[in-house]
From TrEMBL:
This is Cytochrome P450 2C9-like. GO terms for molecular function: arachidonate epoxygenase activity; heme binding; iron ion binding; oxidoreductase activity, acting on paired donors, with incorporation or reduction of molecular oxygen, reduced flavin or flavoprotein as one donor, and incorporation of one atom of oxygen. Transmembrane segments: none annotated. Pfam families: p450. Its cofactor is heme. GO terms for biological process: epoxygenase P450 pathway; xenobiotic metabolic process.
């Protein structure tokens, strides 16, 4: 059936209206950073591949420069590429870029609550409190170092128990790393065979991977059209809800046995602060923020370090010469008769450089967690309106050729000077930078050093195939670069 004249007139009117709105929007956005033309509803979906989001943005930056604008559906995003642009925003204009941008895949769970996804006064209260409690429980101090050393010895026993047979290191590493943050937030560690603990780690591992699938990236771009439809995007909220239920049970248990003068863990401290501020209507200390901040700390404190260790094992097997040089430095500085301690790091420049290079090369959170500007800001001659989301591409900083001499290859000399001394680099930003820098940076740095040196002091990482045949591409690449699945043998030295 041919379309009626009325239908054609209506279609023409709607087309003209969309063109007018696009033109008017373009005029309003004339002071925004440049970017590709965007379609109504779809935004720049035709230019940004959900399976290669980072690569698509890097390609667009070749045309539009280090600061440019894209639209993920109707959502406006300013993208920052390279060390200079990211530092200028997050460090030199720290307050203006300190907002948390939208992340639709997890919004149903967090809804602006918890220390990672909150904004404004709520965020300031939660971050200040969380940092204080983490430090009180030893983050970055000797007390937590002893806890990590103990867990490293447990992990070493578990690795030895594989009896040089092939195994996948994923859950052993997750158990060890998670137990460190568990000792802070829950006040205890878990046995590596505890079924509830293993189920929790499996959910965490699965949700971290799901966040990085092409479908999740597609949902980030097309949330307006997809949020009311069934599909894979519903899996992440279900997984996070189950993890939150575990935390809620721990909160109830702590509340029943709380002793005000003897807080045992992060949850106890938060409960005491809730009681202290119960008559303050603007207080951020409530059950919802307790559960979701604990989930933030537990999730980030487990997945980031354990994934980096998995990448580290892989890189050390792909580069056996590097593994042996680390072992030689361990032998020379620490020997075989005592456990490594954090003071050894300053006397082990090569090992320190290797750990930094593992973090740089693994590029775990390539696009950062989204930021947002907290006010209208003039940035490099462009006007970025308040509440605009910002993607500071950490990957583009960690691979910036102006900052690293070998940006695209695994090379510890990126962090060594000509005399073999460790060399700091401002472009080393795996924990992000500025006001939203990772809460657990000091803890993560300590864990990476102590776990790796404790393992390499006694065991050699042996691949099942020639090093050149080991996998290198991430299993998924989206929100995170998920380490590929592999097996190895642990051989006694």
């Amino acid at each position: 059936m041919e379309p009626s004249g009325t239908f054609l007139l209506l279609l023409a009117f709607l087309t003209l209206l969309l063109l007018f709105l696009a033109f008017r929007g373009g005029r309003r956005a004339a002071r925004l950073p440049p970017g590709p033309p965007a379609l109504p509803l779809l935004g720049n979906l035709l230019q940004i591949s959900p399976s290669r989001t980072l690569q698509s943005l890097l390609k667009l930056s070749q045309t539009y420069g280090p600061v440019f604008t894209v639209y993920l559906g109707a959502r406006r995003v300013v993208v920052l590429r390279g060390h200079a642009a990211v530092r200028e925003a997050l460090v030199e204009n720290a307050d203006a870029f300190a907002g948390r941008g939208r992340m639709p895949t997890v919004e149903k769970t967090f809804q602006g609550h918890g220390v990672v996804f909150s904004n404004g006064e709520r965020w300031r209260q939660l971050r200040r409190f969380s940092l204080t409690v983490l430090r009180d429980f030893g983050m970055g101090r000797k007390s937590i170092e002893g806890r990590i050393q103990e867990e490293a010895q447990v992990l070493l026993r578990e690795l030895r128990s594989t009896q040089e047979k092939p195994f996948d290191p994923t859950y052993l590493l997750s158990c060890a790393v998670s137990n460190v943050i568990c000792s802070i937030v829950f006040g205890n560690r878990f046995d590596y065979r505890d079924e509830e603990f293993l189920e929790l780690l499996q959910m965490m591992n699965e949700s971290f991977r799901e966040l990085s699938t092409p479908w999740s990236q597609f949902y980030e771009m097309g949330e307006t059209l997809l949020k009311h439809l069934p599909g894979p995007h519903t899996k992440i909220p279900r997984l996070l809800a189950r993890m939150r239920s575990f935390i809620a049970r721990r909160v109830r248990k702590n509340a029943e046995t709380l002793e005000p003068g003897l807080p045992r863990d992060f949850i106890d401290c938060f409960l005491l602060q809730m009681e202290k501020e119960k008559d303050n209507p603007s207080s951020a200390f409530n059950t919802e923020n307790l559960e979701l901040t604990t989930l933030n700390l537990f999730f980030a404190g487990t997945e980031t370090v354990s994934s980096t260790l998995r990448y580290g094992f892989l890189m050390l097997m792909k580069h056996p010469d590097v593994q042996e040089k680390v072992y030689e430095e361990i032998e020379r500085v620490i020997g075989r008769d005592r456990a490594p301690n954090i003071e050894d790091r300053s006397r082990m420049p090569y090992t320190d450089a290797v750990i930094h290079e593992i973090q740089r090369y693994s590029d775990l959170i390539p696009m950062n967690v989204p930021h947002a500007v907290t006010r209208d800001i003039l940035f490099r001659g462009y006007l970025i309106p308040k509440d605009t989301d910002v993607f500071p591409l950490l990957s583009s900083v960690l691979h910036d050729p102006s900052a690293f001499k070998h940006p695209d290859t695994f090379d510890p000399s990126n962090f060594l000077d000509e005399n073999g001394r460790f060399k700091k680099n401002e472009a080393f930003v795996p924990f992000s930078s500025g006001k939203r820098v990772c809460l657990g940076e000091a803890l993560a740095r300590m864990e990476l050093f102590l776990f790796l040196t404790t393992i390499l002091q006694s065991l050699r990482l042996q691949p099942l195939v020639p090093p050149a045949q080991l996998p290198s591409a991430p299993l998924e690449s989206g929100f995170a670069n998920i380490p590929p699945i592999y097996q190895l043998r642990m051989v006694s030295r």
